[in-house]
Amino acid sequence: MQSSTKSTDQAQSFDILLFDHFSNHCLANTVEPLRAANTLSRKSLYRWRFLTLNGDPVFSSSGMQVAPHGALRDGAGTTLMVMPSYEFRNLDRWETTRGLRDAARRYTRLAGLDTGSWLLASAGLLDGYRATIHWEELTGFAERFPEVNAVRERYVIDGDRITCSGAMAAFDLTMHLIGEDNGQLLAMDVAQLFMTQDSARSHSSRSHTSKTVDRASSIMLAHLERPLAISEVARRVGCTQRTLEHRMQAELKTTPQTVYRRLRLNLARKLVSDTDHPVSEIAGRCGYDNPSALTRAFKAEFSITPRQMRS
C-alpha cells in the first residue's frame, strides 16, 4: 500500500525492493515513520512504492503477502531501498546483480537495509564506500567484499549510499532522514507518536540532541497541564536558562519556548482527534487558560482550528 496522503512534486520518493522472506519488522520500521511524518505535518513529505525483482508478489518471513506496485525494471526516482532480510545468499545471483546495476543508473541513491548491503556489494555498488550490514553477517561481509569499508554501526550514510544493520536500526535511520529533510522538531513529533524512549533524541543513534535537551524535553512532557517557566525547566535540568536556550537553538534550531508550545499543542491535537472532550477541557489539559487562547495557538501551529479539524 502507498501513503494515503496525496503526493506532491516536492515529496521524497522511496522505492522498496522486497524479496521472499523479507522482514515485516524492517519494512514497518522504514515506512511507518514516513507515514507518520505525512500525517503529523499534514503534508505529502514522502511517498513510497513496493517493488519486486520481476513484479510478482512476495511473502515475508512470517507469511505476509505483498502485491507490489511493479517490477524493479520499471522503477526510478530518488531512493531505492533493497530489503531481502532472510535467505539473502540464495538471492546473490546474476538476475539480482543485473537488476541492481541497471537500477543504479535510474536512482539518485541506493540503500541496503538489513542484509540488502550484501546484494549491493555483490553487484559492485558499494566498492569504495563505508557500509554496514546486520552484525551477525559483518565478519563474512568484510571478508567477502574487501573493496567495501565494512564498519560496525547501526546505519551508515556515505554520499549516495545508505546501509543499515537491521530492523530496529531501520527506525533510527528513517528518523534521521526525517530530521535531516524536515527538521528535528518533526522527528521529535514522530518519535513521540511511537512512544520511543527518550523521544527527543531517540531518532538517531548519532543523536542531534544532547542529554541537556533530552532532559529538558522530558521535563516539559511531564508538565504539559501546568507548564513551568523555562528558567525552572533549566534549573531542573541542572543548567542555566541561557545554556538551555543555546543548546536548543544549536541542536533543534529553535527556542525552548517553541519546543514547549509544540509539545503542548501536539497533545491538544491528539485530544481533538481522538476524543470528544470539549475544547475548553482540552485547553486546560494542555496548559491554556481558556479555549480562545488554545484556538489561536492551535491555528497558528496547524493552520486549522480544533473545531475545523474535528469537522
Describe the structure.
The chain is α/β, with parallel strands linked by helices and 311 residues long. It folds into two domains: 12-178, Rossmann fold; 209-310, Orthogonal Bundle (Arc Repressor Mutant, subunit A), CATH 1.10.10. Helix content is 46%, strand content 15%. It is built from 13 helices and eleven strands. It has helices at residues 24-41, 94-104, 116-122, 138-144, 167-182, 184-193, 211-222, 230-237, 241-252, 256-274, 279-285, 291-302, 306-310; strands at 12-18, 46-52, 58-59, 65-66, 70-71, 77-83, 107-113, 130-131, 149-150, 155-158, 161-164. The relative contact order is 0.08. Mean pLDDT is 90; it is low at 1-9 and 197-207. Residues 214-311 form the HTH araC/xylS-type domain. One of its GO terms (molecular function) is DNA-binding transcription factor activity. Pfam families: HTH_18 (PF12833). Keywords: Transcription, Transcription regulation. This is Helix-turn-helix domain-containing protein.
Tell me the series of helices and strands, N- to C-terminal: EHEEEEEHEHEHEEEHHHHHHHHH
**Count of DSSP-assigned helices:** 13
Here the CATH topology of the largest domain equals Rossmann fold
The CATH class label of the largest domain is: Alpha Beta
Annotated CATH architecture of the largest domain? 3-Layer(aba) Sandwich
Q: How many E-type strands?
A: 11
Low-confidence stretches: 1-9, 197-207
What would you give as the CATH superfamily of the largest domain? Answer: Class I glutamine amidotransferase (GATase) domain
The structural class is alpha/beta
When the domains are counted, the total is 2
* SS strand fraction: 5-15%
Outline type = elongated
Percent range of helical residues: 40-55%
Oligomer: single chain
Biggest sheet record: 7 strands, mixed
Rg on CA atoms, Å: 22 Å
Overall mean pLDDT: 90
N/C terminus separation:
27 Å
Order the strands across the largest sheet as they lie in space. 5-2-1-6-7-11-10
